[in-house]
Specification:
heterotrimer, A mainly alpha (214), B alpha+beta (224), C mainly alpha (195), A: mainly alpha, two-stranded antiparallel ribbon, C: 195 residues, mainly alpha, 72% helix
Chain lengths: 214, 224, 195
């Protein structure tokens, strides 16, 4: 009856990671890469996609073999699986572009300790069918990528006056250098969270008023 | 439903089997990826070096790597002791210049760079920053600032009469006060980073060029 | 090639390149366990201790990996070492210093997934540090982490008493504080690196 969980795949399976349970903005998971590599939109996108791949591959594999894994060695097994896929991503990125690899540095390998991946493996993949896990992992991964892009775009735009390496404002723009520095990461993410919290509060408030009006 | 006790304790053999299986699978996947990507990565690294060398030796089309060890020129081999140098040749196999790596402590860590030395003018013709952690917007201008790059159009690196050291040590001077051809004009607001570049060049040129000088004919012959 | 002096490494990792405030490593405990000074400082100390142990073991394992030319297993090996190091520290403390174990015990499992530890091991390898440099690096990283988390806890204890708009409470506020701390630590950049 452990596997009796709902195995239907619907929009919700996919979308929960995108918005309602967004790993970064709502669950505050995997903060290190979120702040460290988002000083440009390109880096943010690459990191997001790399994490999505690891999430998908490990989620699929874990949900397929979860029932054969004894409980005691569960976490160890998950970590090995995740580390394997991260190593693979690491080599693939090196093969694709050395510049990108140098920009991301050790943070590709640090995907291993991104608590989001282990968290999803334990909380979702091990309890659901492979296909459903894959769909959910894709949603989570895209939600994570979306959040990284939110930061990367703002920081690159303000801090370097460009987007994906393309100069936007021309000569006269004085870059807001602090944005590409570490402090900028904290500040931009803080502002985004503030914005989301504010929207959420407004929403609950107006819902409450509606209820009241009836 | 199996009893809670059974659920709790899986037999040790099962655990061993699972862990061994996972380890084997993981080993297989990692080795496979390594094998598949190794040639691509090597190619990328070669291209990166190639691009850097042709930037610091303007006009060069082909390069050869050598190891310089105790005054002798050896074929390049990974992991051997000695200074790696890259000789750049033009289309006719004429030696244009020699590139070497150097490094010095900058503002926020070591700055590594590649520089190209041209024997015909006895000067440094270009630098490329390979790795650094300088502050974006300030120190990292050593990489991008066009004015700073003009320092290395022809930076004097002549040897003294005894051929054991530079005639004039390479020094970095305050922004706008460059007078001599062996001086590096610092970027204003990034003096420490600029100084590190000058220091790295001086350090390496003082040591490398006297060793390199007698080997120039040998390197020239290699291109033919 | 790597001429970073020990003093420079230490100062640089504590202040200018602080693991938390400049390299964003170990943010989960930084945001999660920084509510009170009484828990923040033991957390910092426990992390520093594990850092030291893992740094030394990672150095040794890397030597083996390099001699056998199987560097592609580095990541998997490191994560295994860190997990075992944490376990080892936990068991040793339990046996020889129950008092310390009681105060640090709850934090130890959390430390395994602290990316500062794996980050330390990876960075020391990438930078090609030798043994004494690695140990200094670990000391610096631990001290820097403790400093950052203690400062943060001090600030948050103060702020708990002040009136704030409701939307700014929680993670957003912590991040803003982190940003300001990070900004002020930037003033240390170049320390020990100048002339």
């Amino acid at each position: 009856m452990k596997r009796k969980t709902d195995n239907r795949i619907d929009w919700e399976t996919f979308s929960e990671g995108l918005w309602r349970d967004n790993p970064v903005f709502v669950m505050l998971l995997g903060m290190c890469p979120v702040l460290a590599v988002t000083n440009s939109a390109t880096n943010a996108l690459a990191m997001g996609l790399a994490t999505t791949f690891v999430l998908l591959a490990s989620g699929g594999l874990i949900s397929a073999i979860a029932r054969y894994i004894p409980k005691q060695v569960r976490i160890a097994t998950y970590i090995i699986i995740i580390a394997t896929f991260v190593t693979m991503v690491d080599y693939v990125i090196q093969a694709i572009s050395l510049d990108l690899y140098n920009a991301l540095g050790a943070f590709i390998q640090l995907i291993v300790v991104n608590c989001m991946i282990l968290g999803r493996a334990e909380a979702y993949a091990s309890k659901h069918r492979p296909l459903k896990s894959l769909v959910n992992a894709l949603g989570m991964g895209l939600g994570f990528t979306f959040a990284l892009l939110c930061l990367g775009v703002v920081r690159e735009l303000l801090g370097a006056g460009s987007l994906f390496g393309v100069d936007l404002f021309g000569e006269n723009f004085q870059p807001w250098v602090v944005m590409v520095l570490p402090a900028g990461g904290f500040l931009v993410l803080g502002t985004w969270l503030l914005l989301f919290d504010w929207i959420k509060q407004r929403k609950t408030q107006s819902e409450g008023e509606e209820l009241h009006a009836r | 439903m199996s009893s809670p006790a059974m659920q709790k304790r899986a037999p040790a053999t099962a655990m061993m089997l699972v862990l061994t299986g996972i380890a084997m699978l993981s080993g297989f996947l990692v080795v496979l990826t390594d094998q598949l990507t190794a040639p691509l990565i090597a190619e990328n690294q070669r291209l990166a070096i190639e691009a850097a060398v042709s930037k610091v030796i303007p006009g060069s089309v082909s390069h050869r790597q050598f190891l310089l060890s105790e005054g002798k020129l050896l074929p390049f081999k990974k992991g051997e002791a000695g200074q790696t140098i890259h000789a750049g040749y033009d289309a006719h196999g004429r030696l244009l210049g020699i590139a070497a790596e150097t490094g010095a402590q900058g503002y926020a860590g070591m700055i590594y760079l590649l520089y190209g030395y041209e024997p015909s003018c006895e000067c440094i013709r270009g630098i490329k920053v390979l790795k650094m952690a300088e502050t974006p917007g300030l120190g990292d201008k050593i990489m991008s600032d066009p004015e700073f790059q003009t320092n290395f159009d022809a930076l004097d690196a002549r040897l003294d009469s005894r051929q054991t050291a530079l005639l004039h040590p390479i020094v970095t001077v305050k922004h706008g006060s460059k007078q001599q051809s062996w001086e590096v004009d610092a970027i204003s607001g990034a003096t420490i980073s600029s100084k590190a570049v000058g220091k790295a060049l001086n350090l390496s040129a003082q040591k490398l060029l006297p060793q390199l000088k007698p080997l120039i004919p040998e390197l020239e012959a290699m291109g033919k | 090639m790597h001429a970073d002096s020990l003093g420079f490494i230490f100062l640089n990792t504590v202040l200018a390149n602080n693991f938390v405030l400049a390299m964003f490593l170990g943010l989960c405990p930084f945001l999660g366990v920084s509510g009170k000074l009484d828990t923040a400082i033991p957390m910092g100390l426990a992390t520093s201790f594990v850092m030291l142990v893992s740094s030394v073991s990672a150095y040794a394992v890397n030597l083996v990996l390099v001699t056998l030319d199987i560097e592609f297993l580095r990541l998997i090996a490191y994560i295994a070492i860190i997990a075992s190091a944490v376990q080892l520290v936990e068991m040793t403390l339990k046996k020889y210093s129950p008092g310390l174990f009681r105060s640090l015990g709850i934090f130890l499992p959390l430390i395994t997934t602290n990316c500062a530890i794996l980050g330390l091991a990876l960075f020391q390898t990438f930078k090609g540090y030798d043994f004494s440099q690695s140990v200094t690096y670990a000391f610096g990283a631990g001290a820097g982490f403790t400093l950052a988390i203690a400062l943060m806890a001090g600030l948050r204890e103060r702020l708990a008493l002040s009136q704030l708009p409701s939307a700014t409470q929680g993670a957003a506020l912590s991040l803003m504080l982190g940003g300001l701390l990070s900004l002020s630590f930037m003033g240390f950049a170049g320390l020990g690196g100048g002339h």
